[in-house]
Amino acid sequence: MLTLPIRTFTAAAQTLPPVDSAVHAFMTQYHVPGMSIAVTHHGKLVYARGYGYADTLQQTPVTVNSLFRIASVSKPITATAILKLVEAKKLSLDDTVFGKNGVLGTTYGQPPYPENLRKITIRQLLQHTAGGWTNNGTDPMFSHPQMTASALISWTITHQPLENTPGAVYAYSNFGYCVLGRVIEKVSGMSYEAYVKKAVLQPCNITNMQIGGNTLAQRKSNEVIYYGQHGEQPYIYNISRMDAHGGWIASAKDLANLLIHVDGFPAPADILTNVSVTAMTTGSTANPGYALGWAVNPYHNWWHSGSLPGTASEIIRSHHGFTWVMLCNTRTDNSFFNDLDGLLWKAVNDPKTPWPNTDLLTAH
Q1: Percent of the chain as helix, strand, coil, to the nearest 5
Q2: Could you give the CA distance from residue 52 to residue 54 in angstroms, rounded to a whole number?
Q3: Are residues 223 and 341 in the same domain?
């Protein structure tokens, strides 16, 4: 269990008791050292605040610009990048990935490939319906830490055959998004990170998001420190290799800015077309509750969460014009994630919550 200094909130120009009290109680219950949130309404950032500590030893406060690992919240970012390539007519969602006619050709592994491997499409990788490489005890992304992404893909498609016919079964796959990162590199001619910055982040005027480092010594400027609970070690994984499925670090404020540019609401203008947004938020036959990099429901809410040792994150787009971001520098058990998911719903659903009327995107 973490022992925290006596401090919960950082200094902030504004306070909002319905939000602050909920965050305070959550952090106290789950021993969260630091947390950052950002809330938008009708395209404007109406509340953003840092709580607690980025570094408990130095008592460095979290701010709205503190960078956190966002883990699997990276997946909607990768999906957006793929859709930008589709819009540029450099790619189709139904293109196959492996094999002579696939986007990646026969670069990886040892051809000839099994028939099912040659059937996998870009869309299926985005939907987690490619047929295997599930996020369980055999997840390739948490093994062979010294391998590059390319070497890991070659090893995996050779040694871990698919369990199901592509398209038939939903099975959440970090590895599938690692493959999508290489698709982006092949088609764009740029590194994954460089392409996302150019095609997705720059149009939103986001400059601080980047792929994180693996060790405490590789901590980026303004990045928080991560704190494990129940014996977890936050600095043991190859985070940089996780780029397209879990490697980004970001501030709550920047993620909120990105959200309002892909949320399907009229203002500000999205960086994706309406056709792309519809595709991005339409679930698969195998799992209607997961689309292209987003969990979705019939109420037109979209979201994604992220989890790594020392990291918890979630982004939510609600049907009634709100989006919000929640970032933590620790995690615990399932009840922690259930409570994080529900943390701000009461405030955003209450018409009496006194959200500021001004856009806080320039707040510090």
Answers
A1: 35, 15, 50
A2: 7
A3: yes
pLDDT in tens, 5-14: 434 333 344 7
Residue 359's pLDDT is 63
Q: How confident is the model at residue 64 (pLDDT cuts 50, 70, 90)?
A: very high
Instruction: Report the run of H or E that residue 280 belongs to, with start and end.
Output: helix 274-280
CATH number of 235's domain: 3.40.710.10
| Structural domain span for residue 267 | 17-68+218-286+293-349
Are 247 and 184 members of one domain?
Answer: no
**Residue 48: how many CA atoms within 13 Å on its side-chain side?**
27
- Total domain count for the chain? 2
Comparing C-alpha atoms, which of 355, 267, 333, 295 is closest to residue 79? Answer: 295
In single-letter form, the type of residue at position 207 comes to T
Distance CA 166, CA 151 (A): 23
Report the SS3 class of residue 272: coil
Q: Give the list of residues 6+ apart from residue 31 with CB closer than 8 angstroms, or none.
A: 1, 2, 4, 229, 330, 332
Rounded distance, CA 152 to CA 155, Å?
5
Note whether residue 358 is domain-resident.
no
**Neighbouring-strand partners of residue 311:** 308
Name the amino acid, one letter, at 160: Q
- The pLDDT score that the predictor gives to residue 5 is 42
Distance CA 236, CA 242 (A): 13
Q: Determine contact, residues 326/64, Cβ cutoff 8 Å.
A: no
Check residue 9 and give its pLDDT.
Answer: 38
CA distance 341 to 315: 9
Asked if residue 10 belongs to a domain, the reply is no
Q: pLDDT at residue 278 above 70?
A: yes
> Is 310 among the domain residues?
yes
